[in-house]
């Protein structure tokens, strides 16, 4: 054992030291790169959060300035409080990041307070307003100048002296309210939802490795690692968790620098300070903004373990595994060296034992060196090949035993073996032919193995005589092939069973039926794989076949399947049945097809009888070879009377020549024909019209065999057509003199009459129109499908949605032009069919006149705008929509300033030009959805759907400015025109067009009185 350990240590120790050094270097370098990347990502994250926070705070200061200026503007109004409350409500509704807006007077007392709730803005009554003069943010804001904005600490919202629960992180923005005289009238305070900033910080950090943190300049948590640690300085927990206590090493650096990073025993801390500090004033002029208590600190923390590569544990395990594998390899290698010596000692003993085995073996054993010289030849080889050992020792094996045709291949393989010790025969067992003494060829089985002896390759071969075995194998193979062919030849299930049901052989189809493969089903009982009822039936049949020795055929049902089963006995040499061959064929589809064929034939006969047709077939000579029985209802002859006869035998003499000519061409070049009409003489001597269709059929060799087809009695239709033609001649005489288009169609919508007026109206000649579908020809594409749908019941009833009434439609001219027409339709019955006659008139001029009248009734003739009546109609419609769906709506009235002076100074022509100028500018400036109209004189009205008061004021101001910016050139003089506008908006008190216009008119009057060229809201 000591010797083994020494050998192992000597081999393993250098490997172990090398692996350890390489692993340590690799892990150290990867950790350094990983730590650098983590640091870069954290610095970018902290910078992103800091920049975003500073930007958002600056944005909110502008909101405070806006509200302060808004409050200052309303101090001179009569209803100051109400206007400010409305403005605050609108602001908090659209700015959801603020939850309280307040206006406090010079003493710090709340005068107006609006809270945001789930239901919307809530204005606090005066009874619950509070005195906030003692709060630090109120005192500090009071010290700010005009347009200065004060930013409070990041703290929790306090109501009535208590911290609101659940906690509501809050930032307050304050701005003084300075009136027009420069007097400070109070301050505006906005409570900002602090959670939105904190959530934004969390969102920006996302799932990165760094955990975001935010603390005060004293180190107290605003956003900490644990929510329970936050706001300790406001909850009298100043001795609780804080940045300075949890990260003392990092805090010492953070308090002395604006930004940077610190690696502590707990991990990496990356930090930056905000540019805007709490409790500071943001002035409109650059001044120092040093905070009373310093700025906020934005930080991220990456735990110590995350600074290492994430796969460090896996790497250590792989290193340990490498140590183990190398150690194991070294151990085995050292043991092999020791064992090798022992093996050599035993080799000689094994050689002697091998020689003894060779001498006693029943198989021939021969050994050769690398050049093919025989160096060993056992007694069995002497017996097999007839050569004594002394005769072959030193001879070439291939020259002695290999047939001449194989000798070259053997010598070539020996060359490769001599170099490499490998070859196609090495390690394999093959069958080949060998030469025995006297030139006799015998089949042998050869197994060759190679070994290296003193640096040279040798081979030893074991040779067995295969003569008798090959004879037996040929017999067995022939028997197996015969059985396999019998089993696998059928495309259906086939199996060979013992009388007890054990499967001896089975084909693939049969195995699939039993839910397996041939390999895993052989040896199993077929009866156990079948259903109990099916199994018992098979047992009885097999017993019967075994006892009788005769085959048996039968059919059985298995579920929805029909199976045809053949059972054959297989007898042994003594005549006893020892095997049963079972063949099963699924005939379900065949039986279903037979039933379907019978049903189809019956259905075919029923249909042909129902539609008044009979089916026929002729041979290649034109003689009837088949005809259905219902032919007797048509011709009076039975089918038996017609078989062997030709069609021309039943034709009138005057039609015979034309029919033979047509038939000759058809039989010379057989092809399908349809709807061929001919007169035939019935058995009773009467004359009928038949309509026939047929197609050629061919035998299996592709030779023409005759025609098959169907024929039906169309005598009634032919007589009706003749009557129609007579009627048409009368109708045409009347229709040709008509001014309106007259068109007649049959029950399929096909045109059968077309007068000259129709040709003039639609552009199609009578030849082009007759036989065409009327809807496809003259109906507009938009109405075509609807018209066709209305015709569906017409063939049966002669009725339809357009029958008997006068309607207006769009007609389609041949050149593609659509035009309005007036149409009246009546129907009549002729024979068994319905027909329709339409009278169509061009109403293009009538429509143009109606459109002109509508325009005159709704449009102002001078400006082209809606007149007062049309404006009121459209406005009432929009008002109804706005009230129903609770949507905003506004109206404003505008009046041209000094319009009377323009008329007096320049004349009414120039005044009209100003009115048209006003209309053009207004149409350009307004939206398509807005309704513009001239109400009278120089007054115009505008209705704005989906527009509240603020938006309406913006639109009115934009329109006023557009008119003011444009001018009218009158000769050498330029006229500048201005307008005054009054605006009113839909509300509970103003909910009619009349009241809205009245309020807008009052506001317009106020705009006139206050100097003109301005917009005033009601």
Automatic annotation (TrEMBL):
GO molecular function: ATP binding; kinase activity
GGDEF domain sequence ranges: 887-1018
Major localization class: membrane
Source species, domain of life: Bacteria
GO cellular component: membrane
Keyword Transferase: yes
Name this protein carries in UniProt: Diguanylate cyclase with PAS/PAC sensor
Organism of derivation: Pseudodesulfovibrio piezophilus (strain DSM 21447 / JCM 15486 / C1TLV30)
